[in-house]
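Entry 12.
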Amino acid sequence: MNGNDVDIETLLALSPSADPFRTSGVSQGRDAGWLYGGQLLGQAVAAAGRTVSNKQPHSMHAYFLTPGRFDRSVDYVVEDVRDGRSFANRRVEAFQSTDDPILHASVSFHAPETGASHQRDAPPRVPAPESLDPAHGSTYRSGLESSFDIRRIPADLLSDPDTARRGVWLRATSPTSDDPLFHAAALAYLSDFELFLPALLRHGLLGDGVMATSLDHALWWHVPARVDDWLLYIHESPRTSGSRGLAYGHFYTLDGTLVASSVQEGLMRRREPA
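Predicted 3D structure (tokens):
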């Protein structure tokens, strides 16, 4: 199966295994034959979650160590770091064909409980997704379009010259599983979608003359959300320096509930002429 034809449920299902701490997943393509980083994030969360009971992921911190290829499957090894009454932690490493990991991630899980609550509001003047035209193609050609309806918000409605803020509505194109772990893993998958784009746009660093790659990624799930409902992803870049850029994002539901937040650092270099 060609990587770009893999739907999100197949991508996150992972292979059955007698050892729950070892599993593998199919791959999904992007430009130049490299894996879309969101695939690794989503599959790592799914692999870790298979080993945890009665808790849901609340945070993930991951490092992209070396590029993965979409023409190879990915093997995941999960380490049980801690199981407590309220929290559990898993370390996940992803491999392709060699003993060197391509991703290292730590995923923390939390048992549901009540407590204080506040949030940052969504930006004003954001049009409803149904009022926007479907987008065709992605800056990163992630393969995400095979499973998600994408509606980009006109840049002038979110204009911020300092951070190059961008926004996009995302929703799975068909009903999906009711499993909360699936939706948490799918949100991790979505969280890499064009997150670093504002850092590149801020300096006009797009096209074949630019090398850009993700270095690390963090995600916090605040409350449960479904990826077959519309989600607004707002992302911006507060700082770039030394060929590195920082970007952060927030996911909101249609009613304005902030459900997740992400942060990513990436490398951005102009290619030297041959």
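Annotation: The chain has a mean pLDDT of 91. The radius of gyration is 18 Å.
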